[in-house]
Amino acid sequence: xxAPGENFKIDGDxxxxxxxxxxxxxxxxxxxxxxxxxxxEDAEGRALFQKWCEEAGCTxxxxxxxxxxxxxxxxxxxxxxxxxxxxxxxxxxxGKYDGVLGVLGALEVVRTLNDLDxxxxxxxxxxxxxxxxxxxxxxxxxxxxxFAGIHQEDWxxxxxxxxxxxxxxxxxxxxxxxxxxxxxRKMHAFFELHIEQGPILEAEGKNVGIVTHGQGLWWLEVxxxxxxxxxxxxxxxxxxxxxxGMARITELVHQIAMEAQPxxxxxxxxxxxxxxxRNVIPGKAVxxxxxxxxxxxxxxxxxxxxxxxAPKIAEELGLGISIEPVGHFDPVTxxxxxxxxxxxxAERLGYSHRDIVSGAGHDACWMxxxxxxxxxxxxxxxxxSHNEAEDISKEWASAGADVLLHAVVETAEIVE
Length: 416
Hints:
By secondary structure, the protein is of the alpha/beta class. It has helices spanning 12-22, 40-55, 100-115, 142-147, 153-157, 167-173, 200-204, 242-258, 296-317, 336-349, 363-367, 394-412; strands at 59-62, 68-72, 82-86, 124-128, 189-195, 208-214, 216-225, 229-230, 265-274, 280-281, 284-293, 320-329, 332-333, 353-358, 373-378.
């Protein structure tokens, strides 16, 4: 399984130092980061990333959604570039590695090729996608979604945060609205390195996860309507309790996901009862169900079963019910050639690995619609992410970046 550059390794210390340096921007309150998209901290992180990429000899392009592209030239001016990257924005209580590892790992690929004086036929483009997290401006993966034609740019720029600030206005305010048309760039392939954000790799002692599929998703917002009443003076058999209906549907969601195994999940993550008073039986409950599966039939089946059975629960309890889809994307099957390049790289390097399904959405899921795409993952401690306690080891980061390096080099084609 030999290949050109089979002994190449990234500089693990340099990658780790870059991660720690970027983590100084937008520090959280408990060891992580709060560098939400289009904030002053995001602008500062972008500027540092720009500095590092230009020091590595790359030229910058920025599109009108703020996506950043840094190009290391190839030897063939007609060859389409290999794109590599992820995102620098974080959750409000995010960790130091979610997204950032993929951006700085991509930069480390370029730095390593510079150190080794290796030339490639195809250009390599290090990429930072705007607003992957979606925590300030929903939905997630917003700018890569515009790039891939999933969202209209005007619609995306009209998204507002909790304070009513527009995405487009904030992008201009921080000075990162570029002049390139979104989606005009053509790709030979796209690779993304990411932390797993789940417990499987660590639990099984694997250095690397080769992502073959991304889960599809249905978000269903359920509204139950009952009757507000005094908790102390209303007999049990005369209550129209929206909170009870929510509890029973919560159990139903769990049952549906358990009976759709393997690789299916479901939960209620956001829930509100009204009037939310300690001595009032809830007259209304609004909550969001999150179903995910890498299989389209299974994903749609979970939604269909919920829509068939939840109204029966509501009817039994005398409740009104509405169910509205508020988020969706289809399951993703990543490119077989790109997946094989990553798997072969892990084999050559001697890293323990396994195929894995991504339970979270990533920019790569949208890029898969416009170019051959694949992802590689490294473990994270206890599977914890979207949390300031998120943690990985230098060795895990290095292993993932080594595999990324080899796959990118193979795809970009070394010029001897």
